[in-house]
Every structure is written in C-alpha cells, then in structure tokens.
Amino acid sequence: MTTDDQVVFIVDDDERIREALGELLETHGMRAIAFGSAGDYVDAEKPDLPACLILDVELPDINGLELQRQIAVGDHPPIVFITGHGDIPSSVRAIKHGAVDFLTKPFSNADLIAAVHTAIYEDRKKRSERAELSLLRQRYLELTPRERDVLPLVVSGLLNKQAASELGISEVTLQIHRRNVMQKMAAASLADLVRIAERLGIPITHSRRVGGN
Question: What does the alpha-carbon distance between residue 30 and residue 8 come to, in Å, rounded to a whole number?
Fold first, then answer.
C-alpha cells in the first residue's frame, strides 16, 4: 500500500527504467509519478507534497544537470541523480548544487531507497521551515509601525530607557510597545525574539548592548 503524504517524481527517457523504479518505490510504500523528459516534468501539475526527484542525467531535451540549475531558483524537491555514464566532474557539480546523491547505473535498490528517504526527509524539513518563516512574516506584518521601530532596538540589547530615547517616547510607552511585540511575535523570551529577528533578516547590532532591563 502506498502512502498519500509523499511522492517521488521520476524523470528518465527509458520507459523500462521508469517502470522498474515505479515498481520498486511502490513495494516500499511510495507513490511514484514518472516522466520521459525534463519538459514533461516541468509542465506537469504536481501534487504539493513532500517529495523527491529521481533525475536521469542524459535526457532527450535538456541535460539533467541543466534542469537542476534551472529549477534551483524556486522551491523544488531534493534531487537524486541517476546515470549510465557517471563521471567525477558531473557528480561533484550535482552534489555542490544540492543533490542528495549521484548514483551510477546499475545501482543497488538499497542505495536508491536510502537516498529517496533522505531526500523526502530533507523536503519535509524545508517545507516546515518555509511554513514557520511564512508565519513569522505574517506576525511581523501585524505589528504597528511603531512596534516595528521598537523591535530592532530591543533585540539589539538596548535598555528600555535608551530605546525610548532613540524613538523620542517615554520609557513607559516603550515598555508597552515591547510587551506588544513579544506577544504578537509569540516570543517566550528576549533570546527567542532575537532568533525570530535573525530569521526575518532584521538587523541586530549586538555591540549596542550595555546591560539588561
């Protein structure tokens, strides 16, 4: 029985290889969708699930390494390359640009399945991180303009008095804004807020820190 919470895409111009890989994956409970060319894969509607892309290097339209380069600009499944003509420069290039593995035919079923599991695990992790970052960005957008002014000052380690002075507001008002920022960003502590700010790319000047408050 195959699971519906993940998928493996196969891109290989050899129909026999596509069928063999599909059967192998299904025996390990994984759903497989096969394509005969890079163009077919790119143009197809694909399920939005944790995935792995098993990609042949030699394809009828473009080279698999070129496809890897083209889709690198967006979110795509981790790639496991397969090839009948492996060489060190190609494998180095593939791994350098993020491929999980580079397997030369004939490869063992165990090696392929292990690589696919690794790829799907990596994709689940990346999807979780993207979802978390999206949530943080949404929370940040819910801050008022003044709260967005307060956030970088707080995470940079300024005392309430110093941050209030920089913004030209009272210390009490600063404390209210700081509390609102902590609550809206769901930060349990200042250290937690610092980590959130770093993920959002908010500048943090640690050298400004002179003490706690």
Answer: 7
Q: Do 10 and 21 meet the contact criterion of CB atoms below 8 Å apart?
A: yes
What's the CA gap between 194 and 120, in Å, rounded?
A: 30
Helix, coil or strand: residue 106: coil
Tens of pLDDT, residues 16-33:
999 999 999 999 999 999
Residue whose C-alpha is closest to residue 38's, from 2, 14, 64, 16: 64
Supply the pTM of this predicted model.
0.80
Q: How far apart are CA 156 and CA 154, in angstroms?
A: 5
Q: Residue 195: what residue type?
A: R
Which strand (E) or helix (H) includes residue 132?
helix 109-141
Report pLDDT digits (tens) over 151-176: 999 999 999 999 999 999 999 999 99
Low-confidence ranges of the chain (pLDDT < 70): 1-2, 206-213
Paired residues of 34 in beta bridges = 10
- Rounded distance, CA 107 to CA 110, Å? 8
Q: Give me the pLDDT at residue 208, please.
A: 45
Please state, in angstroms and rounded to a whole number, the distance separating the CA atoms of residues 107 and 82. 8
Between helices 190-200 and 109-141, what is the axis angle to 10°? Answer: 110
